[in-house]
Amino acid sequence: MSYELLTCDEMGRADRAAIAGGIAGSALMEAAGQAVAREVVAAFGPQPRRVVVLAGPGNNGGDGWVAARVLAEAGWPVDILSLVAVARLAGDARLAADRWTGRVLPLSQAEDRLKPTDSDAAAPVVIDALFGAGLARPVDGEAARLLSLVQVLDLPVVAVDVPSGVSGDDGQVRGMAVRAALTVSFFRAKPGHWLLPGRDLRGRLVIADIGIPPAVLRPIGPRIAINRPPLWQAALTAPAAGDHKYRRGHLVVAGGPPETAGAARLAAHAGLRAGAGLVTVACLSDAMSIFAGTDPAVMTRVVPTPEAFERMLQTRRVAAAVLGPGQGVDALTRDWVRRAIACLPALVLDADALTAFEDSAADLFSQIRAATARGARIVITPHDGEFGRLFPDLAADGGTRIERVRAAADRCGAVVVLKGADTVIAGPDDAGAPAHGRLAINGNAPARLATAGAGDVLAGIAGGLLAQGMAAFEAAAAAVWLHGAAARLLPRGMIAEDIAGMLPRVLQAVAPSDDDGLDALGFGLDGD
Ligand SMILES: NC(=O)C1=CN([C@@H]2O[C@H](COP(=O)(O)OP(=O)(O)OC[C@H]3O[C@@H](n4cnc5c(N)ncnc54)[C@H](OP(=O)(O)O)[C@@H]3O)[C@@H](O)[C@H]2O)[C@@H](O)CC1
Ligand SMILES: Nc1ncnc2c1ncn2[C@@H]1O[C@H](COP(=O)(O)OP(=O)(O)O)[C@@H](O)[C@H]1O
Ligand SMILES: [K+]
Predict the structure, then answer these.
(1) Spacing, Cα 164 to ligand 3 middle (Å)
(2) Integer distance in angstroms from the first to the last C-alpha of the chain?
(3) What would the pLDDT profile of 105-143 be if each residue is shown by its tens digit?
(4) What is the pLDDT of residues 487-523, one digit of tens each?
(5) Three-class secondary structure of residue 504 per DSSP
(6) Beta pairing class for 78-82 and 157-160
(7) Secondary structure of the chain: what % helix, strand, coil (to 5)?
(8) In 432-511, at which residue ranges do the beta strands (DSSP E only) sit?
(9) How does pLDDT run across 422-457, given as a tens digit for each residue?
(10) Among the listed residues 225, 249, 246, the one whose alpha carbon sits nearest the alpha carbon of residue 237
(11) Average pLDDT over residues 459-475
(12) What percent of the chain has a predicted confidence (pLDDT) above 90?
């Protein structure tokens, strides 16, 4: 199983390298089209069913012509609607079209042929081979008309490479796209298969081997990956015989005022579950009874002044801290954050610890940079709203989600976890920094995680992993995946408090260095 994701440009380079290495482009296209046909048969066969191929002007269309021929040879009734005349096709796509011996329907017959007829046992299957990696502008005109017909008729769609109109680079829809039941792509998946709305529109994803040798990736050096355990599994620490609780890592969670104390409680509990040896909530005296009276394994320490907080961080063998959940958007939070950054080896800044710097983001970033320069591991975990407060220019006009998170990590020097349904984790592109420009897209989080406090749990998990010494990028990516996996084990109706309780099962499953343990959870590594 491969975890790298290739941008359309990187995929093109892989393609060209394979061709330069002696594999004919037409052979790659043949393999791609055959894979599409094979998946159509597997999903909709074995009884032949009427198929309509929508073929575009480039190589994506070429794959469609090959699939059409292979299906027709297997006895499936196939029609082709081509966006351009065959005479206008070039290269491998032209070769593929020239091998088609059936009819090519004029676009004026599209509606007639797409509509289910009385003689159809089932609605026709549409192979969407209009545009793939070469999508250059919004889909409009005839292509949009064809896709609208498919959408209105609600036909089952198999997309070649990506649903036409979805950008392989960022999952955004340019113009229009229709939802596929199945997408067959080649060699490696693309970021657009995993970022919304592309992830939603692509349906089930099959990545077919079309004979491109993996060695072509070496000079390309892909830096985007789907967030899966092999990315960080080796960095998880297991309790060792000689451990005591301080050696496993002391995590401090900043506790806020009584009315929002639940957030820090969730984070503290999750930090313990993630494996911190001990967790202390630091708070003012008015909240002490709340923190002390709840989670028996979590300790509480009253720190009446910022100086007392700093002294505690310096004298209690603190390995990491989580600041922000329910802490309050005020000068006191800023003060605690500055002191924690200045003296701790590892830190998660979430929620209020980010919002409190809305008007002084540059100040926060310069402190983070100074700390990471001396080796501190810092993770920030904004949702889109918090991200917009710290990076208003990037949020307003920062390109794709990937580009935005990358630019944010470069600017602030921390590992950035941009939370959402398709959480993205990015490390800064500093030469020599351990995270050096790496980026992971998470795909395992169920929508039921959109519940109050889920983010506090995530911050606690990340803090617990940092406290055990994990590198920042690995800890952040692992936390996001473990959080999603834990939620997936819970039924609808789950609330934030339930998540940490599933961590033992999830951690047990990912502890081995192979993937076998994951099967025990009841969900495999494929698809999502
Ligand atoms: N890489 C690999 O390893 C392999 C890749 N393979 C396949 O190749 C696909 C990439 O092929 P590709 O580069 O020819 O691009 P493709 O997606 O066909 O689009 C380009 C054409 O569409 C046109 N066009 C674009 N946008 C448009 C719009 N909105 N509205 C109208 N027209 C628009 C554009 O026109 P132009 O911009 O030139 O005017 C051009 O004619 C890839 O997705 C995969 O399926 C396989 O064969 C096996 C190996
Ligand atoms: N639709 C969704 N699908 C999957 N995960 C989601 C979805 N919505 C939110 N999440 C996840 O739930 C958590 C919510 O965090 P956050 O926005 O900070 O909420 P809170 O402050 O209430 O804890 C994040 O980890 C986010 O990635
Ligand atoms: K397509």
Answers:
(1) 4
(2) 13
(3) 989 999 999 999 999 889 999 999 999 999 999 999 999
(4) 999 999 999 999 999 999 999 999 754 444 555 566 6
(5) helix
(6) unpaired
(7) 45, 15, 40
(8) 439-441
(9) 999 999 987 666 666 799 999 999 999 999 999 999
(10) 249
(11) 97
(12) 88
Report every protein residue that has its C-beta within 5 angstroms of ion ligand 3: 128, 132, 159-160, 164
What amino acid occupies position 126? V
Read off the tokens for 230.
């092999």
Q: How far is residue 132's CA from residue 240's CA, in Å, rounded to a whole number?
A: 50
Centre of ligand 1 from the C-alpha of residue 120, in Å: 31
CA of 108 to the centre of ligand 3 (A): 21
For residues 515 and 525, the answer to whether their CB atoms sit within 8 Å is: yes
Phi, psi of 488 (to 5 degrees): -65, -25
pLDDT given at position 522: 64
| Residue entry with tokens 């002294």 | 311
For each of the domains in the chain, give its residue range(s) and CATH number, in order of start. Answer: 4-222 (3.40.50.10260), 229-519 (3.40.1190.20)
- For the record, the structure tokens of 98 come out as 């020239």
CB under 6 Å to ligand 1: residues? 11-12, 15, 28-29, 32, 56-63, 131-139, 143, 160-161, 186-187, 210
Measured by CA distance, the residue closest to atom 13 of ligand 2 is 455
- Token pair, residue 196, equals 């919304």
Please give the Cα distance from 228 to 525 (Å, whole number): 8
Q: How confident is the model at residue 238 (pLDDT cuts 50, 70, 90)?
A: confident
Position 293 scores a pLDDT of 84
For ligand 2, the distance from its centroid to the CA atom of residue 524, given in whole angstroms, is 23
Question: What is the SS3 assignment for 419?
Answer: coil
When pLDDT is cut at 50, 70 and 90, the band that residue 2 belongs to is confident
Measured in residues, the chain has a length of 528
CA-nearest of 437, 438, 404 to 231 is 438
Q: What is the pLDDT of residue 519?
A: 59
- The tokens for 289 are 């009874």
- From 245, 169, 232, 248, select the one nearest 10 (Cα to Cα): 169
Provide the total of helices (H) and of strands (E) in the chain, helices listed first. 23, 18
Query: How big is the CA angle at 346 (ends 343 and 351), to the nearest 5 degrees?
Result: 100
Residue 147 · residue 176 · CB < 8 Å: yes
Question: What DSSP letter does each residue of 342-380 carry, written as one string?
Answer: HH-SEEEEETHHHHTTTT-HHHHHHHHHHHHHTT-EEEE
Distance, CA of 27 to CA of 318 (rounded, Å): 59
Q: Which residues contact 315 (CB under 8 A, 6 or more apart)?
A: none
Residue of 269, 354, 442, 458 to test ligand 2 pocket, by largest number of atoms within 8 Å of CB:
458
* Res 471: pLDDT: 95
Q: Element (H or E) spanning 255, and its range?
A: none
Pocket, ligand 2, Cβ cutoff 6 A: 383, 419-421, 423, 445-447, 449-450, 452-456, 458, 483
On whether the CB atoms of residues 459 and 267 are closer than 8 A, the answer is yes
- DSSP, collapsed to helix, strand or coil, labels residue 199 as helix
Ligand closest to 59 (CA) is 1
